[in-house]
Amino acid sequence: MSTKNIEEKQYLLRFKCDTKSHLTVLDHDVCMTQCPDKICTVFCPAEVYKWEGTRMQVGYEGCHECGSCRIGCPYQNIKWEYPKGGHGIVFRLA
Amino acid sequence: MPEKFDVIVVGAGPAGTACALTCAKSGLNVLLIERGEYPGAKNVMGGVLYRKQMEELIPEFWKEAPLERPVIEQRFWMMDKESVVSFGYKGLEWAAEPYNNFTVLRAQFDQWFAGKAVEAGALLINETVVLECIVENGKVVGVRTDRPNGEVYADVVVLADGVNSLLSKQLGFHKEFRPDEVALTVMEVINLPKEKINDRFNLEDNQGTTIEIFGDSTKGNLGTAFIYTNKDSLNIGVGTTLSSMIKAKLKPYELLDYLKNHPMVKPLIVGGESAEYLAHLIPEGGFRSVPKVAGNGVIVVGDAAQLVNAIHREGSNMAMHSGLLAAETVIEAKHRGDFSEASLNLYREKLYGSFIMKDLEKYKDAAHTFEKYPQYFNEYVPMMNQAMSKFFTVDGTPKRDKQKQIMKKVTQERGTIRVIQDIYRAWKAVK
């Protein structure tokens, strides 16, 4: 079967997760008070960002390391690093 | 490991590996650093590898490289909701040596390619992130990695660290990219038996097709979708500029599923099994977004230097060629014993004199034009479909009357002056 939603898509992938997040929301108040759209929760291709009412939950374990959130955050509120060497997503095909 | 190398290359993608391979072949002491578990583990591409620039690095590579299919047909679809206007070219000269281009799966290809650099004498170190360039007296003299005591020194550091190139940003070679300078693209690899691919795309074994899809594939936003045939799988993907994605509040994976369920697309992939899902940014700012590419002891290549021609979906070939030009520059600098910016600016000269910067210059206004004037994607594509439908539907209307009706509809919808402006603007952007 071909996938129908993001959960099924993410399930196809292999991740070697670090215990520490390589993505950091610098100030959750900025998300709460200045960013009604919380657009990172929309365009992130892996649905890493989820708004939980008062803070942004960052599911870094499923990150594709594309960089969109760093560039697309309207408030430059995301500190974006690479996961530790050998960690993070492992593409096996394309 | 020696304390100091002739050259350190950061990133084992097409650009970095091309550079490492060429330097190693000429006898330089090369360290190639890759952050993934293996070269290719972090690398993503729709899947078209061009023969010409690869052949310059490894003659007749197609005899041993892990390739999928030589592309013998390139189709272009202008797609509306329930229709498509298509054109393309299929030629058997592309089915024989020396070929034009190939579909590839990067995880395999990049490992093989990096292996060639290793065979030539480069030292490849995987699972290592370069945190920063070591700068002394205004000159890059090495890199600091995330390994214990992970400082390594070299005469030259080549930054092939990809679209995000945190390292060239740290050096102040460019500011953070804007959302309209990058395209967010997602794709799936869908397994499908070889016979089905051959039947559905009208191919023999060892023949491939690429389809580029404009219009409803991105819901009218600035971007494209694609379907490429591998041996026994398809790559299907879609991307728009990150700015368009933000403006339209699109979820990229929902756009991909929309594409997969589109009535023009679905019959091609039905029954297939998803094998991988991948997201990646493509640097699409073009000519004006190319950063400073050479400094004291440092050179920037490939995606890190924004070397992508989005209009012709060329990127990996530019990456490889820039890697080659960087290597030539390093080799000459080594002879001179001068790794200053003035010396390494030879790379800049080579780059700007090559097809890479000439092509980027040709299309320097294209991305901006199509971003600013979205009518090309969201108005003209549907109009083309309606015009073709009208023209080819036999309903007793004389053809000359049909032509008049079509022209009237177009000029009514957009206005005659605006149509002329649109045509002139598009021509200017790509001439």
DSSP helical segment count of chain B: 15
The CATH C-level name of the largest domain in chain B is Alpha Beta
The helix tally of chain A amounts to: 4
Q: What is the tally of beta strands of chain B?
A: 17
Question: Which word captures the global form of chain B?
Answer: globular
Please write the CATH class name of chain A. Alpha Beta
> What is the number of domains of chain A?
1
Task: Strand order, main sheet of chain A: write it out.
Answer: 1-6
Keywords (chain A): Electron transport, Iron, Iron-sulfur, Metal-binding, Nitrogen fixation, Transport
Family (chain A): To ferredoxins from P.putida and C.tartarivorum, ferredoxin I from A.vinelandii, ferredoxin II from D.desulfuricans.
Protein name (chain A): Ferredoxin-like protein
Domain 4Fe-4S ferredoxin-type (chain A): 54-83
Gist?
Chain A: One of its GO terms (molecular function) is iron ion binding. Chain A has 94 residues and is of the alpha+beta class.
Description:
The complex is a heterodimer of chains A (94) and B (431). Chain A is 23% helix and 19% strand. Chain A is of the alpha+beta class. Chain A has a single domain, classed as Alpha-Beta Plaits. The two termini of chain A are 19 Å apart. Chain B has 431 residues and is an alpha/beta fold. Chain B has 3 domains: 199 residues, FAD/NAD(P)-binding domain (3-Layer(bba) Sandwich); 102 residues, 2-Layer Sandwich (D-Amino Acid Oxidase, Chain A, domain 2); 64 residues. In chain B, the strands form 3 sheets. In chain B, strands 1, 2, 7, 8, 9, 10, 16 and 17 form an 8-stranded mixed beta sheet that branches. In chain B, strands 5-4-12-13-14-11-15 form a 7-stranded mixed beta sheet. Chain B has a two-stranded antiparallel ribbon with strand order 3-6. In chain B, a hairpin with a 3-residue loop joins β13 and β14. Chain B starts with a strand and ends with a helix. The chains are: A alpha+beta (94), B alpha/beta (431). Chains A and B meet through α1, α4 and β6 of A and α3, β11, α6, α7 and β15 of B.
